[in-house]
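Escalated from tier 1: pyridoxal-5'-phosphate holo job.
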Amino acid sequence: MYGAIQAELADRLDETRQAGTYKTELVMSTPQGAHVDVEGRGEMLNLCANNYLGLANHPAIVAAAHEALDRWGYGMASVRFICGTQALHRQLEARLSEFLHTEETILFSSCFDANGGLFEALLNERDAVISDQLNHASIIDGIRLCKARRLRYANGDMDELEARLTESQDARYRLIATDGVFSMDGYFARLDAICDLADRHDALVMVDDSHAVGVAGAHGRGSHEHHGVIERIDILTGTLGKAVGGASGGYVSARTEIVDILRQRARPYLFSNSLAPPVASASLRALDLIESSHELRRRLHDNTEHFRTRMTQLGFDVLPGEHPIVPVMVGEEVRAARLAAELADRGVYAVSFSYPVVPRGTARIRTQMSAAHTTQDLDFAIEQFVGARERVAH
Ligand code: PLP
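Tier 2 regenerated the structure:
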């Protein structure tokens, strides 16, 4: 029986390899950090983690996880509503609401699950979701799982968004869905303009702030703080797997009734295990660190500015912006892959992204800055970019 599908799968895998899109995984033998040891390569400078604040192996976070293991145990072996809710989970939900300036928060195992469960629980065929074309896969999948009408607008194009709002006037509810920061470009969504349009057309706004929570805004609350629209977003989703500790977990933080309905209806919440206590506890500690000091964000900001400025001066085509996602544009797919390989040979871990993840002809090396990088780290990376560019040109 397996023979038929086996042959077909093998063909598909061959096609993927031939197209140059087969993904392999480098294996690390150290904790996540600015420097990691990679099997077969040795030490590398890591420029591709979402470890924006350097908390993934921060001593205070590791200590919080250790303490939680002793105090709360390892796992919950239950979903939340059966016997999987500890005071710790409630505490983290309340803490996130306070930090984000929202009414209520509900935890999920991941932001992928948060986005996967959100739309279906709230909307039905009488409603419409209007989604930015570059939204994360989890938003796209979440929208697919609900019966609402789906409309798309070109990335950041407010005229198209308005056209879609006009076009969907007959829907009972309309929800605009956007990433707070688009992960391939590091561009912020124009939340101020989006909120204005939502007000004018009586629509709700949902923002996935996975790449901005802990990073953007004067206090690190995220892109709603960055744009001064803190009280105007109806639904925020986000991850605990990037700046906020870097382990795993996600949330929806929103109006009270929205969160309450999600507790009753969101399928990934009802049918998937609770967040592990050490992760919940360490996430609380991460929020403490983020709130009690601007130092990590300041370092991240300085690193980002340094890298963006030097790379641009050296003639690299860096997408403009201020986010620690710094895409170095290459254009042609094969050239981007060669540049990434050359960088790896020089001890710099950075990944090339090409079609279909980004549009054809816009392949790039996506670098990501971290508060854990030193200026010397970044200068080393810049030097290797220059050397690798020379090699790839010949
Ligand atoms: N949303 C966005 C914008 C992301 O970049 C990611 C992670 O890649 C996710 C959601 C998924 O987050 P998680 O890893 O918590 O599932």
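The domain at 18-47+294-393 is CATH 3.90.1150.10 (Aspartate Aminotransferase, domain 1).
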